[in-house]
Amino acid sequence: MTHIHTAPSTTAYNFELPYQLECAKPTEERGLARDEVRLMVSHIQNAKVEHTSFRDLDQFLQEGDLVIINTSGTLKAALEGFQANGKKVRIHFSTKISTDKWLVEIREVIGDHTKRYKDSKKGEVLALKNGGSIQLIAPYYQVRGDEHLKLWEAVLALPSPLEEYLNVYGKPIRYQYVKESYPISYYQTIFAQEMGSAEMPSAGRPFTPELITRLLAKGVQVAPILLHTGVASLETDERPYEEFFRVPSHTADLVNLARKQGRRVIAVGTTVIRALESAVNQHGTLEAAEAWTDIFITPDRGLFAVDGLLTGFHEPKASHLLMLEALAGAPHLQLSYKAAIEEQYYWHEFGDVHLILP
């Protein structure tokens, strides 16, 4: 069954992103440590915006704050494939359904980059290296108003387990603004424990062991969730896809206690908010949970689990901006993004970060 989903309109966030703010290189390639990216701190209550370095994050968190991080690791989720006529395509693995079944995106290869491919067909078998293959068995996700499919259910036939195969033949997913290929280590956060994300949970990338040590010494608590991110090449007004998540019982308990005591809960990334909000029960408290979530967080739905967010800067009209609006409100989001462009913060997974505080 094909899922046809759209998001509420994000035209209020149709700002112009100057091309020079699209970060093409990791910090390591720019002569910086990971925690030397820039940090913009915006305060919802008084609309104050501050500009600093991520290395100074501990100055903006306080004893008793609860910081929730994502422990998902990033796969080499892009594989080269070939159609029966020999045409090369790029296969992006998005979400695991079962041992040998995944949701995948097929992209046309144009030079050193790709674009969404329109001519894939049900039943089509794509050849992979070393005798592997992948068969498109059912259309899964289509963008409303567009004739081509975004995601397919696909069955794999590989000579080795998928993660092992990807480690040999795969590459990290990258988009046009990243001009060169980089090793998978550049796409891992220090929190990575369980491989499964198609794309890096990038809000956690600037953290270093030294910074975490300073936060813990200050009395800031850190607790984990897991959410394996799917492909993020969303079109305008396209909602996020289903993703696997896990909220451990001790994390749920810590969040419930912090909220009861009036302490701040800060999510590191939109993936963390999505996982936590997927574990909120009908009484507004968190429970341990492990499932696939299709939750879409908008201002109308609201947020129950967090007070603040550390996140990268999102593209114009991206559906994630509705989640940020649910947290901070449209006026605050608009003024902070205006400041980010004026101060020339870098966008995307290797870019700068934004801490939104109550």
Helices and strands, with pairings:
Layout: E1 3-5, E2 38-43, E3 48-53, E4 66-70, E5 72-74, E6 78-82, E7 88-98, E8 101-110, E9 113-116, E10 125-127, E11 133-143, E12 149-157, H1 162-169, E13 194-197, H2 209-218, E14 221-227, E15 243-247, H3 249-260, E16 265-268, H4 270-278, E17 289-293, E18 308-311, H5 320-328, H6 330-342, E19 353-357
Parallel strand pairs: 1-11, 2-19, 4-14, 4-16, 5-13, 16-18
Antiparallel strand pairs: 2-3, 6-7, 7-8, 8-9, 8-12, 10-11, 11-12, 14-15, 15-17, 18-19
Helix pairs in contact: 5-6
In short, what is this structure?
The protein has 358 residues and is an alpha/beta fold. It has 6 helices and 19 strands.
Structure description:
With 358 residues, the protein is α/β, with parallel strands linked by helices. The protein has two domains: 7-74 and 183-357, QueA-like (3-Layer(aba) Sandwich), CATH 3.40.1780; 78-169, Beta Barrel (Thrombin, subunit H), CATH 2.40.10. The protein is built from six helices and 19 strands. It has helices at 162-169, 209-218, 249-260, 270-278, 320-328, 330-342, and strands spanning 3-5, 38-43, 48-53, 66-70, 72-74, 78-82, 88-98, 101-110, 113-116, 125-127, 133-143, 149-157, 194-197, 221-227, 243-247, 265-268, 289-293, 308-311, 353-357. The strands form three sheets. It has a nine-stranded mixed β-sheet, with helices on one face. Helix 5 packs across helix 6. The longest helix is centred in the last third of the chain and has 13 residues, at 330-342. Mean pLDDT is 90; it is low at 1-7 and 143-148.
